[in-house]
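Lecture notes, unit on binding sites. The following record was shown on slide 14. It pairs a sequence with manganese (II) ion.
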Amino acid sequence: MKDDVTTEKKRRGRPKKNVAANDTVAAVEVKRGRGRPKGSSNKKPLKNIDAKKDIKNLTYKPVNVWDNPKFSRRNIMSFSEGYKAFMNKARTEREFIREAIIMAQERGFVNIDSLGDAKLNPGDKVFRVVRDKLMLLAVVGRKPAEEGTRIVGAHVDSPRIDIKQNPLYENTEMAFFKTHYYGGIKKYQWVSIPLALHGVIVKADGTVVNVNIGEDEKDPVFTITDLLPHLAKDQYEKKLNEAFQGENMNVLIGSEPVGDKDEKDRVKKNILSLLHEKYGIVEEDLISSELQVVPAFKARDVGLDRSMIGAYGHDDRICAYPALMSILETKNPEYTAICYLTDKEEIGSVGNTGAESRALENFVADLCAMTTSGTYTDRLVRASLDRSKMLSADVNAAVDPNYEGTHDKMNAGYLGKGVAIMKFSGSRGKSGASDANAEYLGEIRKLLNDHQIPWHITELGAVDKGGGGTIAMMIANLGVDVIDIGVPVLSMHAPFEVASKADLFATYRAYCVFLQ
Ligand code: MN
Ligand code: MN
């Protein structure tokens, strides 16, 4: 048990039931010769259970995290405060990585690319950043990397609205940026809300300008307008996916003209003049930019009991943040512990900053070269990946009681039931899924039970209701054992997503015990 898990008196309710149930199963496994798990109790084998007295121990029943006597409310709340503060600074993948670098360096992590051919020793802490959007961190294990690693992988990009490369135009004396949305959004959720502008602009001379407008209380914000109900008769008749057209999702950015009345496009010219004043850029510089609009509101407590957090970008920062925190706190692990923070998951993990890139393999190759006692060869990397295990740290679709029929309730994610394990994702007959091996699921289940970390088994939704994927399949393709495990979320991909603080803490604890 880790020291940050207190054993203070339980706040309310009964102790966790499925721990007892699963201890019993563990005891059966001992009988079958699989060895007694560390810390397991002396429960009697299944066949000796008094049917009347212990019948409840035979059923699988996830419990509420708040009832777990091993977690204190204070620890749950305090971890959530750290998460909210981080979320208010890390609004995009670049900003997440920027904050992560600061936190890693503060804790003694060294850029692996500054070490040349040096050897690494157990306990050494290194990181690598790829194009400011992907990051790998590692704590070197007591065993060399060729014997396998333990990886927690999350993505740090979130659905949003990207500004087009040639975006600026004027219409009816208002200036707009044209956009192309990024990831799976329900477009109607992104109109009529305050938006902030983040990103980079690469100027003609190659210098990079950082943009961040709309987060400070004194900053202006932006918005995509919507039609008033009085004139929405035609809009009401349309299907939801037709009523809001991507090409019309233009961001309002100004309405004041420049002084010279003989000029054309006076409002657009005023915006260009302001951009030049602030950033020293001209219109063509916008072509080499990555500008994103994201909701301009901060992470907030949700509920009178403050048991939940509402924020933009829980998917997947509510898993990426505990993944980062768990690697930062890993000390002297048996196997080299790796935290993998990827970009582009929301559009298919593509490109040289996505999980389909070689970034993980390259990093593992370097770790093998720097920890082997023999001669480095390519076979060490392949052996390492074959022996590695990973938690694909991504959010899960929690049951929303206001929308019946979307889930199979026996195999669904719920708020407050702890970290959600998902054996497979995909859609229409598990197509496009990484389907974890039962043996590996069993191993993870046992690990969580041994540490009394609440968990439940889930699917993305009811069969044939839709589907989706994570980075699990890309990493599984390398030979790694991978399973999806993360925080259940309500209103996923909406500008304001909701998750339970208790689930966040359970997830953080799960990643910690896995890496350690
Ligand atoms: Mn995700
Ligand atoms: Mn997503």
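Take-home: Residues 1-45 have pLDDT under 50 and may be disordered.
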